[in-house]
């Protein structure tokens, strides 16, 4: 059900982005929409007015002399920004890379997973940045990131073990999910084109990403025991680091993330097992 809801959200987002209006409709909206104009102002002294809404809002500067009409200039001046946000919502697939291979080694076969049900979800909730001009800015953000591994085998990953350990179970699980949640702290270098005729622009963003482990979880659903959840760190790496890239148009784009250190720590049999994720990203 959750996957169906997320699919509907994606389909709706795509339809909004690529919906195009005819020239006649555009003209009609232009005619019907009330317009605000800055008329000639006659003052003895110059006046400057700056309006801004949001990080990307354009400033409006107005200058006037005694008997000359004002001129209006749209610009995005350099400056800092800070605040709460809800953006860069990622929804994609997660893949385990075992020492450079997409095939799991014998030591990691117990982690065999269903590719189309192994997902990565995340979003940012706070951001501090500096805009150099309309085309380039940098920012550091804070948010949350989840990786859900849908296990194929009827096993249970055990808690409080010296290394990553599991047991084979004698029951069938309709869902056997092995998850990690992280506080993510990405540093972004955001290159943006100028707005096109539709008011949208292309974005190219890349940078390093640091994650701090919040929790690990095993979630199982079986006919015998119903729904069960078990929380532990499960030897997930406490601090991970990697790189990411985003490419998009308007508010919709694609992302890819790769982490340099191992998925698990203090568990030698899982050395070299890394995480790669890619998918759809909404918001900039």
Describe the overall structure:
The chain has two domains: 36-77, no CATH class; 79-282, Porin (Beta Barrel). The longest helix is centred in the N-terminal third of the chain and has 17 residues, at 2-18. The strands form three sheets. An eight-stranded antiparallel beta barrel has the order 3-4-5-8-9-11-12-13. Strands 1-2 form a two-stranded antiparallel ribbon. The chain has helices at 2-18, 23-32, and strands at residues 59-63, 71-75, 79-98, 119-133, 136-150, 155-157, 166-168, 173-192, 202-222, 226-232, 239-249, 252-259, 273-282. With 284 residues, the protein is mostly beta strands. Helices cover 10% and strands 50% of the residues. Strand 9 and strand 10 form a beta hairpin.
What does the average pLDDT come to? Answer: 82
CATH topology of the largest domain: Porin
Tell me the β content.
Answer: over 45%
Q: How large, in whole angstroms, is the Cα Rg?
A: 25 Å
Q: How far apart are the termini?
A: 27 Å
Give the oligomeric state of the chains in this entry, treating copies of one chain as homo and distinct chains as hetero: single chain
Could you say what the CATH architecture of the largest domain is? Beta Barrel
Count every beta strand, where a strand is a DSSP E run of 2 or more residues: 13
Supply the number of helical segments.
2
Percentage of residues assigned to helices: under 10%
The SSE order reads HHEEEEEEEEEEEEE
């Amino acid at each position: 059900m959750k996957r169906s809801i997320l699919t509907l959200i994606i389909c709706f987002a795509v339809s909004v982005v690529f919906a195009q209006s005819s020239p006649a409709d555009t003209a009609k909206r232009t005619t019907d929409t009330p317009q605000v104009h800055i008329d000639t102002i006659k003052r003895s002294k110059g006046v400057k007015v700056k309006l801004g809404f949001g990080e990307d809002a354009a400033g409006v500067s107005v200058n006037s002399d005694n008997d000359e009409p004002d001129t209006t200039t749209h610009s995005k001046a350099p400056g800092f920004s800070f605040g709460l946000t809800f953006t860069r919502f990622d929804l994609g697939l997660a893949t385990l890379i075992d020492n450079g291979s997409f095939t799991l080694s014998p030591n990691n076969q117990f982690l065999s997973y269903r590719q189309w049900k192994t997902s990565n979800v995340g979003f940012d909730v706070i951001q501090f940045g500096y805009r150099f001009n309309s085309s380039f800015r940098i920012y550091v953000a804070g948010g949350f990131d989840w990786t859900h591994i849908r296990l194929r085998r009827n096993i249970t990953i055990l808690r409080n073990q010296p290394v990553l350990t599991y047991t084979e179970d004698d029951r069938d699980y309709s869902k056997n999910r092995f998850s990690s949640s992280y506080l993510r702290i990405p540093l972004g270098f955001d290159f943006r084109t100028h707005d096109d005729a539709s008011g949208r622009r292309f974005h190219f963003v890349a940078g390093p990403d640091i994650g701090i482990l919040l929790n690990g979880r095993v979630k199982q659903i079986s006919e015998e025991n119903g729904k069960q959840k078990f929380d532990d760190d499960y030897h997930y790496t406490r601090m991970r680091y990697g790189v990411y890239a985003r490419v998009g148009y308007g508010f919709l784009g694609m992302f890819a993330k790769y982490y340099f250190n191992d998925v698990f720590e203090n568990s030698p049999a899982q050395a070299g097992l890394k995480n790669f994720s890619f998918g759809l990203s909404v918001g900039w």
